[in-house]
């Protein structure tokens, strides 16, 4: 878990309080249908994705790439790997929720996700500011 936590600390802006603790990661990984995918760059962990499948729906819970490894296609490859693994586990679609002002949205729309919903004031930032969540979905071909 140490390499994942190193990427977690470096990747998430503390202003939004979105990084998970190692206890939160370990807790969710102990639940059925949840898995962690790690991407390497030059033999070192550079990014990860945490995903859960429940019946025929998969949820991308977290995706992060170390700032020093960004804009080299690791995010795209993680999403492709997650989509393929979710499909193999029986999911028909892959969902995610993202803060409405997160630049990661460009990654999601670029990999085929479409916006399917909004939750107003869903996230509370570290200083108490509220941010909407947008829900995105990607159909997984059988
Ligand atoms: C979002 C994140 C995972 C993207 O990882 P990445 O490896 O840099 O993504 P890729 O290199 O595969 O990007 C593919 C495309 O997505 C888009 N994109 C990715 N990051 C972007 C950004 N910050 N701003 C605008 N577009 C972006 C671009 O179109 C990019 O293609 P290009 O580099 O040819 O322009 C990374 O920025 C990150 O870890 N962010 C912080 C954590 C986070 O907020 N995660 C999402 C919520 S859980």
UniProtKB/TrEMBL annotation:
<comment type="function">
    <text>Acetylates the N-terminal alanine of ribosomal protein bS18.</text>
</comment>
<dbReference type="InterPro" id="IPR050832">
    <property type="entry name" value="Bact_Acetyltransf"/>
</dbReference>
<dbReference type="Pfam" id="PF00583">
    <property type="entry name" value="Acetyltransf_1"/>
</dbReference>
<keyword id="KW-0687">Ribonucleoprotein</keyword>
<dbReference type="InterPro" id="IPR006464">
    <property type="entry name" value="AcTrfase_RimI/Ard1"/>
</dbReference>
<dbReference type="InterPro" id="IPR000182">
    <property type="entry name" value="GNAT_dom"/>
</dbReference>
<comment type="similarity">
    <text>Belongs to the acetyltransferase family. RimI subfamily.</text>
</comment>
<protein>
    <recommendedName>
        <fullName>[Ribosomal protein bS18]-alanine N-acetyltransferase</fullName>
        <ecNumber>2.3.1.266</ecNumber>
    </recommendedName>
</protein>
<keyword id="KW-0808">Transferase</keyword>
<dbReference type="GO" id="GO:0005840">
    <property type="term" value="C:ribosome"/>
</dbReference>
<feature type="domain" description="N-acetyltransferase">
    <location>
        <begin position="1"/>
        <end position="137"/>
    </location>
</feature>
<dbReference type="GO" id="GO:0008999">
    <property type="term" value="F:protein-N-terminal-alanine acetyltransferase activity"/>
</dbReference>
<keyword id="KW-0689">Ribosomal protein</keyword>
<keyword id="KW-0963">Cytoplasm</keyword>
<dbReference type="InterPro" id="IPR016181">
    <property type="entry name" value="Acyl_CoA_acyltransferase"/>
</dbReference>
<keyword id="KW-0012">Acyltransferase</keyword>
